[in-house]
Design brief:
122 residues
Length: 122
């Protein structure tokens, strides 16, 4: 996770930095086989050089980018939790709890769904 530390240092708010660091560490605990990289100024997790999930920050929230196919599959759960979303991402407000089980399920889905995939994006 060392390449994510530089990204996290850019966040001025300690609570936001801690929240994302905890999330990233949990992902790597659950999926130690994932690679990490910063691309397009966003922390991303990859598997066999294909995109699995990415994150970006904003003033009031952080966005989760699991790719459209994954987002569509999990949209009912995202809406039930109450997270805001677009067609490409969902947002977790800084004052909202992270549903770690949802993110874990999304990552597991993408790893399995893209197991034979050879390009970065779907």
């Amino acid at each position: 996770m060392e390449n994510f530390e530089d990204y996290l240092k850019q966040l001025e708010n300690d609570e936001q930095r801690t929240k994302l660091r905890t999330l990233f560490q949990q992902i790597l605990t659950d999926f130690p086989e994932l690679g990490t990289r910063i691309a397009w100024n966003e922390p991303m997790f990859t598997h066999h050089d294909t995109f699995i999930i990415g994150f970006s920050t904003a003033k009031n929230h952080f966005s989760v980018s699991p790719e459209v196919a994954c987002l569509k599959k999990f949209l009912p759960a995202i809406e039930k939790i109450g997270y805001g979303h677009t067609n490409n991402i969902f947002r977790i407000k800084w004052n909202e709890a992270i549903d770690y089980a949802l993110i874990k399920d999304m990552i597991a889905f993408n790893i399995e769904d893209k197991a034979e995939y050879t390009k970065f994006w779907r």
